[in-house]
Amino acid sequence: MNRKTLVLPAVAGLLTPVLAACGGTDSGAKNGDPIVVGTTDRFTATSDAPAPLDPAYAYDVGTWNILRQTVQTLMTQPKGEGSPVPEAADSCSFTDTGNERYACKLRSGLKFASGDPVTAADVKFSIDRAIKLQADSGVAALLNTVDTVETQGDREVIFHLKTADATFPFKLSTPVAGIVNPKDYAKDKLRDGFEVDGSGPYTFKAQLKGDAMVSATFTKNPSYKGSSELNNDKVEIRSFDDADAMGAALDRGDIDVMSRTMSPSQIQKLDGGSDEHADLVDMPGLEIRYLAFNTNAQTVKDKAVRQAIAQVVNRGELVSKVYGTQAEPLYSLVPATLTGHSNSFFNKYGDPSTAKAKLLLTKAGVTAPLKLTLHYTTDHYGSATKQEFEVLQKQLNDSGLFDVTIQGHPWATFRPAEQKGQYDVYGMGWFPDFPDADNFLAPFLDKDNFLGSPYTNSTIERTLIPESRREADRLDAAKSLTDIQDTVAEDVPVLPLWQGKQYVAARDDITGTSYALNSSSTLQLWELGRGVSG
Description:
Keywords: Signal, Transport. It comes from Streptomyces bauhiniae. Among the domains are: about 70-180, Dipeptide-binding Protein, domain 1 (Alpha-Beta Complex), CATH 3.90.76; about 290-500, Dipeptide-binding Protein, domain 3 (Roll), CATH 3.10.105. About 25% of the residues lie in helices and about 25% in strands. It has helices spanning about 60-70, 120-135, 170, 245-250, 265-270, 305-310, 315-320, 345-350, 355-365, 385-400, 410-420, 440-445, 460-470, 480-490; strands spanning about 5-10, 15, 35-40, 45, 75, 85, 90-95, 100-105, 145-150, 155-160, 200-210, 210-220, 235-240, 255-260, 280-295, 325-330, 370-375, 400-410, 425-430, 495-505, 510, 530. The strands form four sheets. Strands 1, 2, 3, 4, 11, 12, 13, 14, 15, 16, 17, 18, 19 and 20 form a 14-stranded mixed sheet that branches. α6 packs antiparallel against α9 (about 355-365).
């Protein structure tokens, strides 16, 4: 049928689907074959990261998409527009005028999939555990405004915050705030391997090959009580080596749905209607890509070097050559569709200019050309990443100011090396934890940031981030957010490159694909069903 289904933003950064995917309306895959979803995400347990699926450790979109199906949170992000809504909670709200005391009441009769009751003490255990473990992934930073967690009886939980945090309901919707059973998760160490237990919509079983998960089966949890309505009884996720292998599996009918990460050429092919058995759904996305700098490294320690790179990089050329209409140039860490966005990098640097970049280096006494190595991951953000870095390499080398080489690494070694400060310049992507400008700034710039970056700015940490979090109306936070973005453009600890759309491709008997991803790139498997081909 090949109809392209478009989802348009009704409110900046939030999505409202307007068309359903092709197929009938019955909720398929009940008591039948599982719906099979393909991904190029790789899930590996290594000596550096032995506990990839522990909610207190996991901090990438692939592992979070497993946890969101299995480990329940107090709040959840709605499939359409709006603020977080109760999930394991029956209700949650700030109980003071200063946004420093947040109280939740659990749903009645909540159970883990094992049959054990879910209590307020389990919520406290889970939050306290994540904060105490302080995993080197940096995910615990999402809970850094929590001072103490109090329980009253079996169903009431009260969070006392160190400072005002209007974004806290969003943070309680993220997997690091997932509720785990103390019987399954030790309080003082991470849970190694690929076992996951919770009270979410599905139970989980991984299929392994060596130290890697090659597929996983999600089975409807009969004990689940929450806000999601399941349209299927079972879903399987299969991990593929690359986008071509995943696309071939969709063509053969071996998988029903193809998610991240499709190649630009695959998206163009599906968009053109060349596959009579598959539909493409596209929607605005909040995914961003950027270069990050180890600001302690000798090659890029001088701010002028980082500014010169910012002055040379041509985002428009990069996007047009590699991604076409699937991405847009980005001039801030904050995507253009979110409240608080400012084109700070364009305001400071304007159009790319070798002459201006040369002047920056000359004034700083830096001799050109500078030798640099740009590192990227070969298997985490899609096959186009290599081409992207080839374009960046050519742009920088053609300026005559840099002598750049590029090196690709698998994610399993790339991420630990980046965290240990082994790369001077490296490429990263960011899928938001929640759709708010704070989540594109604090994770990179606050204390204990997830990059492990040595860059610090006391005004950002102590004044601007706290100021912005005091404002429940995010429009009122715009001044503080803009000041942060302007500081980033001046100091260039990171260099934003582009903002992308997000896509799902599915066989034409699969329903619910319009809701399969939300604005934070959360995969919502429960939305998928099997209908009538046509």
